[in-house]
Amino acid sequence: MKKAAQKERPRSQKKKARRIVLWTLLGLLLAGLGLGGWHAYRILKQPASLFSEAPAATAVPQATILAPAFPIHTAVPTAEPEAALSAPSSASEATPVPAAAPEATATPKPVERLNVLLMGIDADEYGGTTSGTMAHTDAIMLIAINFTESKVDLISLPRDTLTTAPGYYGYYKLNGIFNVGLGGWRRPAGKPDELSEGFLLTCRAAEEWMGGISIPYYYGLDFQAVIDIVDAIGGIDYDVDQWFRSMSGKHTYSKGMHHLDGDAVMGYLRIRQAADGLDSSRTARQRRMMVALFKKLKNEGKLSQIPALINAANSGIYTNTTLSQTTALANYAANLDSGSIQTRSMFGELGEVEYEWRYAYVDQQNRIDIIREVFGIEAEPVGISTRQYERWLHTIGFSAMKYMRQAEKVLTYVQERKDAGQTFTDEQIALYSDCYRAYAALKEEFDSATDTLADRYAAAPWREKKNNKKNWTEENKAADQELSALEADILQSLNDRKNASKDATVRLGDAVGFRTRLTWGVPIDWFEDPDINEVMVNFR
Fold first, then answer.
1. What is the per-residue pLDDT across 273-293, written as a single tens digit (0 to 9) for each?
2. DSSP labels, 398-455
């Protein structure tokens, strides 16, 4: 925590925050009178009507291969002619697309369910961050509202989940998808419209993790915003479960009942001591504190003040909802019994610490059960969130991605020169065909391998741990032998495809005068290699 962040906020600033609350409440009252009877009635009594039919989860294009610059006679399926030549390809790659906006209708159809992603940003008001040079969404919680049954589910998603970023190639942690959406931009704060792509991309990733549901709305809060809001409601009396320090580090709290101000609440929410590797203890505290704050506001009749409390925060709150929508949700919460709030969490095992990265391998059965219970749909397991899949990436997956990128660079160079009017000899065109066929075969093999192994790994959770073979059944042992044989076959086949692609790429590059240096090795810091991860995200 930076030194400046530890300074106490001037008393005049606190008075200013309270004045903002009062003036905002007055403004909301006057605005309500001017909204018109029908709109005011919808806010107060029909909150669902403020949200039109939620769009389906944003479709992300499947990975494609480069369109050939010349006719290629091959059995390997190719992309359509209009496919983007510069789009790299991998198992996780797809062309970025903007989030689909709901179509405007004269009479919006009220939604029966509404999903909102709540994200806590690892940054303070002075621009500091506690993890590396980039602020991440270190707390990710889905608020699933069922208007029909008048209930709410709070579902925590592990921040360290090994995942992909929709529309981008590479492998990331879930809390870094925000940074991918910002193109690796290092500033931890900014105007709402400057950060929206990061929040929206995190929503898209969460949609995939939640079985394809739609998550069209979000709220993002940084450290200081949480502190401001808690201070604005006068703090909270809370029975803490263990010793901790306040966010500023100036105060310590023992286990038991305490009155917590915003600084203390923020410190409590970020407790790391005694938390398990998956942060499940910390996410449980976050959900309990959410419910406690809800109960305080409800008991004191202040839930309708939530929009004013948001405005009371000097900065650091981001959302794509309107004031009317936030007000409607606040009024809905005011009529909701605390017993109607169910808290849930995805969990699993902590991955090996690798290059200072910590991965969470989500328990797929737990994930599938949560999605079924809350949304009534059957989700498929996500095989990439396994220790086995990560090992496979380091064994051959990253290397195959690297080889494909090098081929794409030379193939794209030829296309660009052709578009610029350069003519090629028959020999050069033949070498291009050889390179394209080898590249397409490598990509087809890679895509098939990732799909096959991800499915097999998801179905073999008993195989995750390295040292549990003594507990395997005879059936487990037989399945392991079969899967090991499959892995060996895939490794050999991919290595053959890689070598053929490299040889053809080098020969084509020499023949057409490609001067950019090609690289074939996977660096230790693979996540900083743009041939593997399209966007560099720093967790150090």
1. 554 444 667 778 888 888 888
2. HHHHHHHHHHHHHHHHHHHHHHTT----HHHHHHHHHHHHHHHHHHHHHHHHHHHHHH
